[in-house]
Design brief:
The complex is a heterohexamer, with two copies of chain A (102 residues), two copies of chain B (135 residues) and two copies of chain C (130 residues). Chain B is α/β, with parallel strands linked by helices and 135 residues long. Chain B has four helices and seven strands. In chain B, strand 4 and strand 5 form a beta hairpin. The chains are: A alpha/beta (102), B alpha/beta (135), C alpha/beta (130).
Chain lengths: 102, 135, 130, 130, 102, 135
């Protein structure tokens, strides 16, 4: 069983991403959506936590949400792969279960 | 696939400040009628939902915490509470209300529904579900 | 695959109803089905037919109604959540002695059992909220 | 003193509208005045007259309407925020070609200037939100 | 000029209290309301931050909100004084300005 | 008391995920007509409102970031941005859009509206207001 976790809130004001990182399992995926895409910012206070899990968890971010917020690719962690809404659908299909960190 | 799915209801929010805790409980009460394998997870601020001695007279909002004690009658008997979440908040298991269920396979013995688990056990529980609904 | 979608926050205030809409469209484009979308918590507010957003903004309710009609999606609004928040169909309005109803076309009001059914019957459930 | 109150979240979903209500009552009890309460963001949803909460729950809209009538409080709902979210008075409903209006008694719809005026004229401003 | 700060969210999932503590000034007051009252829990991860500001900032909590959430007085920081809605009104009148940390 | 009050609009939330940033800006545009002393504070996630290059085509939501550049025409010229908030998010002042105003008392010279301040300066600004509205 593998799970796709979605996180939709900024990790700087809210604990959802941090809690997700502490609960996801090797082989799981974490998809950053909406304000969650700020979690992909390199050089931020959350970047080390994300990078630390990148070895055994796959990270994704919605590209539309990243562009809406003016986050250029060179400011974002390379380990966090950009996907569109179609990629989001593929990820939900690919993983056995989806858990939203609301 | 068997006819029964594993449903996990994840509670990460405190009660009363927002309605999510109450409306989550309303879902669980309905879900109980569907004969699925139901578990509830309480972590992060969700552990606050289970504190004992809640008294809402002063804020004019309905106290729904007694409803948790009725869950056993609905055969909802697995309430997983994360120990680290309690610790971070300065709470102990004894600060939570007692919630019991009667085990019909064990001469109707009363057993506690709240099971304190570690963060790592909570992660295992989360990963072992068919459907995860978050509130 | 059959995808179940839950929308837990109100329109415009949170992006949840927008993201859910784009996700549903993408799922349908890929040949999946979205038999039902369930609106819970403030998500029920998506279904009001009285919303009048600025001309240059998307119309979230109309987008959902159109998507549902084109793809035969069952848009279900939780009755308990709807009553608290003032979303009523014609029947409920009459029963409650209210002069007006505000449930938009393409939405129907029903119970939480519809949500559990989705979890039981569909291949995947995805929640959008806050 | 003159207290201005702002409610920024919807009823039942957040406690903001409740706390604001208890605060307003306490201020009046102490001899202060609350000339106006301004409803913004999802706070506008407090003013729907279609809400039907469970019998054993408080009725947030009716509480506000009663408090306003007893104490001559001007309950102002922001027009821009209200239109997005589907709160309309009779006039707006007619103007927008809608069959129904849902603004409760005791509330009126007006512009954001009413909020700024409060800040200029009153002694204190207190915001309740999320 | 003195300010009454109100905080209405749990400090364990949200950064509002922490940000408030970093921005309030000596002589200000901080009133914990709604889910903000959890910020008064002793023995929690936030307690030291609150205590550190108690020397120059006055802390209050709404008593109704504390009781609603089942927080007994012996679990709460003694530095955080219980007030009712009437006390809330007095505080708003007493301080020159009120700032809500929404 | 003078006829003019000091109003501070505090922005602590990111744009698009929620509507607060947009509806805050709508208040400021109206407020500009009232001849008060208006300042805007951007701290915590509020600093994200001012990033340059926002392009919302992919999410179907209106891009309101150009409106910040119109604030100068409304004589709203004090946009305080907290440096520590930028640092924590891995942002630099150059990641924010340029927002200018024309100083009529200085031969209409163009001056930047964004003023980067330290957390301690932000605390001073907050404490020196008559009315603080939070979004």
């Amino acid at each position: 069983m593998s799970t796709l976790h979605t996180v939709n809130k900024s990790p700087f004001g809210d604990g959802a991403l941090k809690s997700c990182l502490e609960h996801c399992k090797p082989g799981d995926g974490v998809l950053l959506i909406e304000d969650g895409v700020y979690g992909a910012l390199s050089g931020s206070t959350i970047a080390a936590d994300v990078t630390a899990r990148s070895a055994d968890v796959a990270f994704y971010r919605l590209d539309g949400d990243s562009k809406a917020r003016g986050l250029p690719a060179d400011k974002l962690l390379g380990d966090v792969k950009a996907v569109g809404y179609d990629g989001f659908v593929d990820l939900v299909a690919e993983f056995d279960c989806t858990q939203s960190w609301l | 696939m068997s006819d029964t799915k594993k449903f996990l209801y994840v509670n990460r929010k405190a009660p009363y400040g927002t309605i999510y805790a109450l409306e989550s409980l309303e879902v669980v009460l309905i879900a109980a009628a569907f004969d699925q394998d139901v578990s509830l997870a309480f972590l992060d601020d969700g552990v606050f939902q289970l504190t004992k001695g809640q008294d809402t007279d002063g804020i004019g909002v309905k106290n729904f915490s007694p409803t948790f004690r009725a869950l056993g009658d609905y055969e909802v008997t697995k309430l997983y509470v994360e120990k680290e979440s309690l610790d971070e908040r300065g709470l102990e298991p004894s600060d939570l209300q007692e919630i019991m269920w009667e085990d019909e396979d064990d001469d109707w013995e009363e057993k506690p529904s709240i099971r304190i688990v570690s963060r790592s056990e909570m992660a295992d529980i989360m990963s072992d579900q068919d459907v995860v609904l978050s509130f | 695959m059959k995808f179940g979608i839950v929308v837990s926050e109100g329109p415009y205030t949170h992006q949840a109803a927008d993201t859910a809409y784009h996700f549903a469209k993408a799922a349908l484009d890929k040949g999946h089905t979205v038999p039902r979308v369930f609106f819970y918590h403030d998500g029920v507010n998506v279904s009001t037919n009285l919303s009048v957003p600025p001309q240059d903004e998307r119309h979230i309710q109309k987008n959902w109604t159109a998507l549902a009609q084109d793809n035969d999606i069952d848009l279900v609004v939780c009755i308990a959540a709807a009553q608290r928040r003032g979303i009523l169909d014609e029947n409920e309005a009459k029963r409650q002695g209210k002069d007006a109803a505000n449930l938009a076309e393409g939405f129907r009001i029903s119970g939480l059992g519809q949500l559990i059914e989705m979890g039981i019957e569909y291949d995947r459930m995805v929640m959008f909220g806050d």
